[in-house]
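F.,

This is the one I mentioned.
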């Protein structure tokens, strides 16, 4: 799992250079920033704007538009619940409400080690409702299965690997 690090401008400059300093590569560069830092710090937005000859508004617009980019450090675990139509038809709204109550946080929030985010299609429509936890997709997730998955995260964090 990614761990948020202190911002290092040299990392961002290397990412820009790796993509030829081309502004049309902004999304790929931002993915690299996320991979390294786990979020896009404000300093990175300013630096990318300068190095790619874009306005800060342009860079911020891309960061704020795409759900995979965030400007604050996430929790150790990222839980995404599909909100697309197929998953809604199979109960994702109720599952989302259960997750919010269980975790004590709302969508786009972090509580303890867990960040809860909506996602609009995980490509697992035949097995909806779908949930992604730390990049792994689970299908046919009931409230009970959700609780088991979250419990497993907590057990792993406590070192209780059975």
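My design for it:
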């Amino acid at each position: 799992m990614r761990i948020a690090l202190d911002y290092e401008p040299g990392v961002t400059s290397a990412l820009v250079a790796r993509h030829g300093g081309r502004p049309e590569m902004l999304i790929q560069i931002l993915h690299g920033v996320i991979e390294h830092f786990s979020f896009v710090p404000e300093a990175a937005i300013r630096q990318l704007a300068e190095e790619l000859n874009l306005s800060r508004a342009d860079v911020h617009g891309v960061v704020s538009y795409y759900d995979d980019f965030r400007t604050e450090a996430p929790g150790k675990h990222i839980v995404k619940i599909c909100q697309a139509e197929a998953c809604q038809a199979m109960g994702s709204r109720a599952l989302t409400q259960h997750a919010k109550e269980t975790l004590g946080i709302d969508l786009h929030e972090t509580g303890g080690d867990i960040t809860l985010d909506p996602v609009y299609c995980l490509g697992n429509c035949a097995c909806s409702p779908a949930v992604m936890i730390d990049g792994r997709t689970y299908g046919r997730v009931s409230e009970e299965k959700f609780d088991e998955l979250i419990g497993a995260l907590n057990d792993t964090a406590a070192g209780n690997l059975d």
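The domain at 77-158 is CATH 3.40.30.10 (Glutaredoxin).

Talk soon.
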